[in-house]
Amino acid sequence: MPVAAADTQEQLLLDIVRVLSPDRTEQLIDFARFLEAQLLREELFGAEIENEVEADNARWDALLSSDDGQAMLNSLADEALAEHRVGKTKPMVFSTDGRIVPG
Predict the structure, then answer these.
(1) Exposed, middle or buried by CB within 10 Å (0-12, 13-18, 19+), for 69?
(2) In the chain, where are the structural domains located?
């Protein structure tokens, strides 16, 4: 991308951010982080590993759509609810940049 076009896009983003509420700015930052993570994943893994990820996703889809998979999910959900009911769970705590931190 030519430098002038990049500068124009950067200025456009800055103009948009300046008129957003703080909540909307946080949403925009979250989305930008999502896009950044996708780019990093593409750079790190490439097409070969992408095929492995797709195959792994297909195996998970098959498991989760099966009766055994549903039984497993129900069991995990029951276990999580039981732990919550007896006070073994903690609320999630986030840092100012949106990352999960120890509570």
Answers:
(1) middle
(2) 47-86
pTM higher than 0.85: no
**Segment (H or E) for 77:** helix 67-85
- Closest C-alpha among 54, 53, 73, 78 to residue 63: 73
Tens-place pLDDT, residues 2-54? 667 778 999 999 999 999 999 999 999 999 999 998 888 877 777 677 788 88
Tell me which residue has tokens 């076009």: 5
Rg from Cα positions in the chain: 21
- CB within 8 A of 77, min separation 6: which ones? none
What residues have CB less than 8 Å from 51, skipping those under 6 apart?
none
